[in-house]
Specification:
With about 200 residues, the protein is an alpha/beta fold. It is built from six helices and seven strands, in the order βαβαββαβααβαβ. Helix 3 links the parallel strand 4 and strand 5.
Length: about 200
């Protein structure tokens, strides 16, 4: 099963095409009912669609390779809009700080189009399997293409930088996807409070 949350119109087109061309998989596309702006280039939309997540350099305050103070992440169209608005507010705040001779807040903005790829590798944190592997009684894990490898994950969400995640679904779903990942995460999503 794959679930895609395109950030904007270009990534929606790419992910729709990818979903329609796929075989032997159940694919869910979560797309807004409202018209979406296109702010990614064709290449950026393709990269987001192929990798499942992308650092939005145009919205970040840190340069490539710099460690951010905080990561603002979004999954879903409306939530991407919210995170982009927050990054603009922080950029304005940084300008004030720098005008006073102080260091600004290093922000990295990340969009996640495939939230299931956030999961830790199968067996990550499973102490029994770790012990069996250490004694040679279990096969080493093969790379899992359905999750981010450690290097890709670290690039998106550097160690030591807290993550604020805005998600277009149930908060507890996103909480579960982050289990087994060594990060401090504040997830924000839908919280059911009874009938509407």
């Amino acid at each position: 099963v794959q679930v895609f949350f395109p950030a904007e119109a270009g990534s929606a087109v790419y992910l729709s095409d990818r979903a329609l061309r796929g075989t032997d998989k159940v694919v869910a596309l979560v797309i807004d009912k409202q018209p979406r702006k296109q702010f990614l280039t064709k290449d950026e939309a393709k990269e987001l669609g192929e990798t499942g997540a992308l650092v939005f350099d145009f919205a970040s305050t840190v340069k490539k390779g710099e460690k951010p103070d905080v990561v603002l992440a979004a999954c879903g169209g409306y939530h991407t809009d919210e995170v982009l608005a927050a990054s603009q507010i922080l950029k304005a705040f940084n300008a004030k700080l720098e005008g006073q001779g102080k260091k600004g807040i290093g922000v990295q903005v990340v969009n996640v189009a495939e939230p299931f790829k956030l999961r830790a590798k199968e067996g990550e944190g499973n102490l029994v399997m770790a012990a069996l592997r250490a004694t040679g009684r279990a096969a080493p894990e093969a790379p899992d293409p359905t999750v981010f490898d450690d290097a890709s994950f670290d690039k998106l969400f550097p160690k030591g930088a807290p993550v604020v995640m805005s998600f277009g679904g149930f908060k507890r779903t996103m909480d579960g996807l982050w289990q087994g990942r060594d990060r401090v995460v504040s997830n924000h999503g839908y919280i059911n409070q009874g009938t509407t």
